[in-house]
Amino acid sequence: MMERYKLVREIGDGTCGNVFMAYNIETNEIVAVKKMKRKFYQWEECINLREVKALQKLIHPNIVKLKEVTMENHELFFIFEHMECNLYDVIRERQVAFSEGDIRSFMLQILQGLAYMHNNGYFHRDLKPENLLVSNGTVKIADFGLARELYSSPPYTDYVSTRWYRAPEVLLQSSAYTPAIDMWAVGAILAELFTLSPLFPGESETDQLYKICAVLGTPDYTVWPEGMNLPRSCSFNFFQIPPRNLRELIPNASLEAVDLIQQLCSWDPRRRPTAEQALQHPFFNVRPWVPGPLHDASQTKANESRAHPRLELNLWDFSSEPDDSFLDLTLSLKPSFHETDHANHAPQRAEEEICQYPRLENAYVKSGLWPLVSSDRPIGDVPAMPSWPQPYMVDSQASLAGYSGSPFGLSLQPNLLDNHHSLRPIRQVNFF
Ligand SMILES: Nc1ncnc2c1ncn2[C@@H]1O[C@H](COP(=O)(O)OP(=O)(O)OP(=O)(O)O)[C@@H](O)[C@H]1O
């Protein structure tokens, strides 16, 4: 069976196996062959092998496909689809932070793969950036379901996951592991995607718990009642440390991202969202930021959009001199009318239009246009701004009743101007 594969070169040397890039000499297909380091002799191990073969039936776009499993001369080989690199290398080689859109895409894929496997009764136990393989922006989870069956050696001392991504219940020797240990690892990986360095880089098991306390604060009975009775909790000297503000630790993450990390990295495994629940988190509620054409005359589009309010981000050039530039961004929320049917549908007075912002119950907002002003800029320093043509007139009092912050997580200020030029944004992005 293995004579069908020609090994090209070694691409990975893990604790349990050596991984080779190889090709199938019959089909020329490039594959990854993992040869387990330990030898397999006993009958129970053959039962395990049957269970491992069952993994071949699990197929998902975000799980590295296990094509074949075979044993020859007491040596065990796994044939996987081949992937370009792993997320650890991608993070290490990265010079600048990933955009939140990139991170969202990685997370979405990881969680979809996890949800599929958890729903099929498997959990990983050793999720870490090295086990997340990447090819052309697609992320796939490697080694799913193998840890439990094969990575522990007789007398089957429990296999433990890589320290930095290890959940507190594993560190404190709980006997009942659940898929929530994978969710902890996902939280740590999500934070690392923002900062490009590990969230809990413990240097020993004790230091690992210390590093977690230093970020989340020391747990107590209110936070994690069961945890306080775990075998090692009694002997472990929980340092009394207050929690850090995750927003300060991960300054480039949105509020939604920080909230998701906080939920995933809950001390109590029962408080962590499942993979399916995490996929419903507001962090994923963003439509892709696809720049739309400025003048789309398609009637169908106009009809579709008419029923909904629109959120637009516009880049303006407010300079008065031709070879000068003075750029600013505005965000506008407004009832939707296509430019071509202003004459028929535009209301006489924009202030009469009311849009509902879906995440704020009973909160209504008038159509509005706001300059996006960075928080360090004085309020009175908003530049003179031309407003929209008449149908999109700015309501300078636009605000959300009873809501002091911005509904979009941005610093919004009412438009100060009424200097109407027939200026158009130089760039426009439609959100919905
Ligand atoms: N299908 C694959 N395609 C390309 N590269 C792979 C593939 N599978 C594994 N590798 C590479 O080999 C490395 C080691 O593989 P893997 O993590 O499966 O070994 P391991 O023995 O489980 O190691 P450890 O237990 O230390 O994680 C991976 O980090 C990855 O770089």
UniProtKB/TrEMBL annotation:
GO MF entry, a single one: RNA polymerase II CTD heptapeptide repeat kinase activity
Keyword Zinc-finger on entry: no
Record-linked Pfam families: Pkinase
Alphabetically ordered keywords of this record: ATP-binding, Kinase, Nucleotide-binding, Phosphoprotein, Serine/threonine-protein kinase, Transferase
Catalytic activity: [DNA-directed RNA polymerase] + ATP = phospho-[DNA-directed RNA polymerase] + ADP + H(+); L-seryl-[protein] + ATP = O-phospho-L-seryl-[protein] + ADP + H(+); L-threonyl-[protein] + ATP = O-phospho-L-threonyl-[protein] + ADP + H(+)
Coiled coil: none
Domain Protein kinase: from-to ranges: 5-284
Assigned protein family: Belongs to the protein kinase superfamily. CMGC Ser/Thr protein kinase family. CDC2/CDKX subfamily.
PANTHER family listed in its UniProt record: MITOGEN-ACTIVATED PROTEIN KINASE
Protein name as annotated: Protein kinase domain-containing protein
Organism: Eragrostis curvula
